[in-house]
Amino acid sequence: MDIQWVALDWGTTNLNAYAIGADGRITGQLHNNMGMSQLVSSEFEPVLVEAIGPWLSADRVMPVLACGMVGAHEGWRDAGYSDAPCLPVDRKTTVSVPTDDPRLSVRIVPGVCQRQPEDVMRGEETQIAGYLARNPNFDGVFCLPGTHSKWARVADGKIQNFTTFMTGELFGLLTKQSVLRFSTTSHDWDDGAFLGGVKAAMSDPDRLTAQLFAARPRTLLSGTPNEVLKAHLSGLLIGAEIAALREMWRAGDIVIIGDRENARLYQTALATLDISPQVYDSARAIIDGLRPLAQVSAQTPEPV
Amino acid sequence: MDIQWVALDWGTTNLNAYAIGADGRITGQLHNNMGMSQLVSSEFEPVLVEAIGPWLSADRVMPVLACGMVGAHEGWRDAGYSDAPCLPVDRKTTVSVPTDDPRLSVRIVPGVCQRQPEDVMRGEETQIAGYLARNPNFDGVFCLPGTHSKWARVADGKIQNFTTFMTGELFGLLTKQSVLRFSTTSHDWDDGAFLGGVKAAMSDPDRLTAQLFAARPRTLLSGTPNEVLKAHLSGLLIGAEIAALREMWRAGDIVIIGDRENARLYQTALATLDISPQVYDSARAIIDGLRPLAQVSAQTPEPV
Hints:
The structure is a homodimer of 304-residue chains.
Chain A: E1 3-10, E2 15-21, E3 26-32, H1 44-52, E4 62-67, E5 81-83, E6 95-97, E7 104-108, E8 111-115, E9 118-121, H2 124-134, E10 140-144, E11 149-155, E12 158-165, H3 167-176, H4 191-203, H5 208-213, H6 215-222, H7 226-243, H8 246-249, E13 253-258, H9 260-271, E14 278-281, H10 282-299
Parallel strand pairs in A: 1-4, 4-7, 5-8, 10-13, 13-14
Antiparallel strand pairs in A: 1-2, 2-3, 6-7, 8-9, 10-11, 11-12
Helix pairs in contact in A: 2-10, 3-7, 4-7, 7-9
């Protein structure tokens, strides 16, 4: 097994690690729930060594490139932020993390922050860099769905500005913890209801907190099925996100970086505006975003 | 102790009972957390008898008038709904609840529903009836803050239409269960920040889910104090509610029915529009709303 370097997408809840071979392909990967929120600073190295130990060899230093909440203040080491407008990833600003294990050369990518209005990202900047590595002249907008969805305007190879929405976290809270949980238990899905929610939010975006509640009376008064109400709720939240960004998605092409299911939902929602965004897999984006740093690290390994 | 009747505000989480004397004044009251969500149908009577037992006497039947979730499908007895437009409380539609205890004559007020768009209330209709009992010619709008805030347009003595917002429940979820909980722990309060949130939501109502998230980067980037972010969050949610109702609060005078703290927040928010709503205490509203039914019941007690 010829592993050249290791890519880490180390977030709040999960660790995703990829072993990259000489041909640039993924030769191994692992996913566990040892996310930042589970760990104190001193626990990151042993967790990492246990996870990727089989990929390490005694006779060389393995470049390990990481992005995500691993670089937060509460993470392994605070990698700080780059101020937008800025390159999404800049090899000069990555932060080296000293390790006890001499087989490791770990670097963490800083997040990106925006001062006005204040906003932050950690991990998404690396996904954007991954797309730009293959499309250096891209001028447009990235949509990165998730717990905290990000929309980022990119031009001249730089993140110009971005906005975060609580879409994914609100959907989780509303369907699991609020009175709406009794209306959204279904594991099925109704695409028509999702589209109805998108259109309702986009046509009346300032009534969101009332539109959200409507799932409750629709259950009580007309017994609307849960799969309809759950999909409609998702549509309302994604539609509100898109409605808030009219000027942004009019600014250029849109690229969605996300997993298949999230990408599909945002594609469906944007189709109502006759927008056909390109979709780019988020894991691939992470690896493509970290690769240039790995090549540097391989040439000039950290002293250990 | 001369108790003529008993008023019950029996909601999802609490039971509030008031003993009303011959002079119409409150001669006793009790409040506990034996709300509808804690009880199955058969448990309501024993819980009530234990609570108000000291107010009962063997030689007469006590009229007990109740409103709230006690009349929900999952409550003591399903009192159904009146369809808006309708009288908020109509003595002809109250539902009698048979009891084992011969000292009780229990009636429950139906909720009010709206078919298009679908919405429901239970308890608020009685508070509105309480205000109308003293102001029969009122033509305007009621604001009833709470877990699920209600705004109701009233004319000709009837609830014409109403809208529910998840304001209170969202505030609770965001400050206790979301990533924002790390930014909103303070027990202090900043009125200026609250007003800032109200104005931000009203000037940009379609960006709510992005505006909510901003508390997180404001903590990370500028260490904005928690009491500022918590008050700002409350202002955003209440401001979004008011922004969604422009046509409603332009329709006439506004009366806020709520507890002192909620009333103060909505007064402060509405003051930004040069609106000075009247405030009416919610407990008093319940009693005034149930009183006419009690008088009927006293004249024609239910057979027991």
